[in-house]
Amino acid sequence: DGGITQSPKYLFRKEGQNVTLSCEQNLNHDAMYWYRQDPGQGLRLIYYSQIVNDFQKGDIAEGYSVSREKKESFPLTVTSAQKNPTAFYLCASGRTYEQYFGPGTRLTVT
Amino acid sequence: QQQVKQSPQSLIVQKGGISIINCAYENTAFDYFPWYQQFPGKGPALLIAIRPDVSEKKEGRFTISFNKSAKQFSLHIMDSQPGDSATYFCAASISIGYSTLTFGKGTMLLVSP
Asked: Minimal CA–CA distance to B112: which of B8, B10, B7?
């Protein structure tokens, strides 16, 4: 069953803690993306990776970090430096003009 | 700077009516314009897309109209159904080379029974 999986679906953390969100795809896509979604703000690009061991900052990369050690995996770490981390996080893969999204992880930081 | 402006922010349409969502872009280098549909708690899914060499593209009840000179494009949902109730995002990108999608802020559509 091909697709993109994100885990967990809901995540709760205390302020000051780093947290890593998982994203795995078995679609054999080279490119993967992380977006943040806030009410009324649309989807904003955090980081993207066109190929293994390479990634670029998106529009709102501050306070986030990523790695791309395997083609299938693109984990996102929300660091304690991110001022407002509570949001819905979406991972996607595919070409620019045809991106497939995962089901998302809702992160709540209190 | 928002490069893709989407309106309205929310829309209520009666069942059987036509839903219309509009987007405007600024970057004339954009050459690919997709629309995504997102249901609550789910990730967005590609609905329909258009390139600027055509003025209209239709897939079932969904139609994209494109006006290159005005730098505008719109989504029309004919015979709107309650199951169409979702958030719709327009987007734009440059299709060659390494590029990313720029999304509008979304339109929350509610189709009343």
From this structure: B10
